[in-house]
Structure formats: structure tokens, C-alpha cells
Specification:
alpha+beta; 2 strands
Length: 60
Amino acid sequence: MFRHALTTIAGEPASRLGLAAYPDQQEACARTAFRGGVNYFFFYSIGQQSVIRGLRPLLR
């Protein structure tokens, strides 16, 4: 039986597909990915402000 190694804060399994941030990425990418079922977002630093701005309304 497959067990999810990564889970969300809410205990849900992390999606197998994630969104990695990159410079100059549009804010809408995070919202679009989330609406498509992605719940795993990755970035190296808080410098990826566009992704953070896109995720902020989803996390409230």
C-alpha cells in the first residue's frame, strides 16, 4: 500500500505534482495550480514574492 510521505499542515496528502517558483513568475500561476489540485508549492527563498502574493489569499 502506498503511503504519502509528505502531507499538508491539515494532514492531507501532498499532491504528486507541485509548483516550483522561479523569478518573474506571475502571481496567477499559484492560484491556477491550486485550483487544478496542486497543494505542494516550493521556493528557495522569500524573494519569490510573486508566488507568495499568489498563495496569500489561498492560505487565509
